[in-house]
Known about the structure:
Shape: elongated
Structural class: alpha/beta
CATH topology of the domain at 1-66 and 158-218: Rossmann fold
Oligomer: single chain
Radius of gyration: 34 Å
Distance between the termini: 51 Å
CATH superfamily of the domain at 1-66 and 158-218: P-loop containing nucleotide triphosphate hydrolases
Largest sheet: 6 strands, mixed
Number of helices: 10
Number of strands: 9
Order of helices and strands: EEEHEEHHHHHEHEHEEHH
Helix content: 40-55%
Strand order of the largest sheet: 5-6-7-3-8-9
Amino acid sequence: MPAFATLDRVSAVTPDGRTLFDNLSLAFGPERIGVVGRNGSGKTTLLRLLAGEATPASGAVSFGGRVGVLRQSLPLAPGDTVADALGVAEGLARLDLIEQGCACEADFEAADWLLPSRLETALAEAGLGAIGLDREAATLSGGERTRVALAALLVDEPDLILLDEPTNNLDAEAKGAVARLLEGWRKGAVVVSHDRELLRGVDRVLELSSLGARLYGGGWDHYAERRDEERDAAERGLDAAERELRRVEREGQTAREKKARRDSAGRRDAARGGAPKILLGARKANAENSAGRESRVADRL
């Protein structure tokens, strides 16, 4: 399976020096990966590394394909049109010059002849088939802007797309457009999201935590099931360890109490002077042997 992006023993830290993840090695190919984890676990940092917008503290990030990012807000300038927002204005203008017979040789060399057909397909898939390309982008609603951003990804056809909380603050129609994009995507996708419904459609789930990174096969439901099973197993193991510790502590306490009673009895016999020397010697040897055994029990605590 080809890798569009690869992390090789990558480490990332926050500006104040806190480690987010360390020695992380992952390859991202033609599959959809959902990324989950608590806030501050490094999810957005991972996307910035894959987008080439951040540098790892150590290790290397390499690319075997083009990467596209679904932006939460369109980078618009005053007067930009929908065509500008889609990133197709220049390409369409060049094709128009060629059609009018006003193009130069450089226009022919740079022409993207399949752009109109890709654009038509992308707009239809994003639910924008009737939108005017010369419409001012500033007039787009929030949901329309999201769909324009989705269409821009489809037109650009990157090998790996990155989506950071793509369904946040969207209406149902726009959420549906994001879900359809992900469902139909046959290249690589990395999705950071808390949207369980969206994560049900991924191929694998990557969990980032203070213990590192772990990949689970399947979507959200399979991940949640495996995670709960592992937590239950860990809790059972902890309970068993606590019970064993309490047992060893009780044995140690009992051993110390027995030794204290024997020592006390020996001191009383020595004080009375009534016991034969041979018996006192035997008691002393027995006490020393017992003390040695009890010391070994106590050392296990």
